[in-house]
Write a structure and sequence with these properties.
By secondary structure, the protein is mainly alpha-helical. The chain has a single domain (about 10-145), classed as AhpD-like (Up-down Bundle), CATH 1.20.1290. Helices cover about 70% and strands about 0% of the residues.
């Protein structure tokens, strides 16, 4: 039998609300820089896959589908490097997402950074790095709190 976990987002709501406000600000800033909501959601899904965050995978898959993302692209996201379904901007975003998430295993190499910079502006790089940091934070909140998902 598993013990009830403290939902830290509910226990300290002001901190969680601050994080949520920052995430909303990043979405607005991304739109200002020309990054699509679906690109951000692909980042959120990929990071959540790497972190094995059940709650965030469920949430961001639903949001991506609502925003018009295809089920096929979401399904092949774990092997995005092999799929010719993603744009150069999306590939750059996913490269950043994986580098931020797996920072202890490997850093963004100079070669990868140069490739990313061919497709993203300074503002887009900044927004994507911050977005990957934010979803990693939300993943940890949900994983440690063991947020459940509802059958749909």
């Amino acid at each position: 039998m598993s013990e009830h976990r403290v939902y830290i987002d509910k226990q300290t709501p002001s901190v969680y609300q601050g994080l949520s406000k920052t995430a909303a600000e990043l979405r607005a800033r991304a739109a200002d820089t020309g990054l699509s909501r679906t690109t951000l959601e692909l980042v959120n899904i990929r990071v959540s896959q790497l972190n094995r965050c059940l709650f965030c995978l469920d949430l961001h898959t639903r949001v991506a589908l609502e925003e018009g993302e295809s089920a096929q692209r979401i399904a092949v996201l774990p092997v995005w490097q092999e799929a010719e379904l993603f744009s150069d901007v999306e590939r750059a975003a996913l490269t950043i997402a994986e580098a931020v998430t797996e920072v202890t295993d490997h850093h963004l190499t100079d070669e990868q950074y140069t490739a990313v910079r061919e497709h993203l502006s300074d503002d887009q790089v900044s927004v994507l790095v911050w977005s990957a940091i934010m979803i990693n934070t939300f993943n940890r909140i949900s994983i440690l709190s063991r947020h459940p998902i509802k059958r749909r």
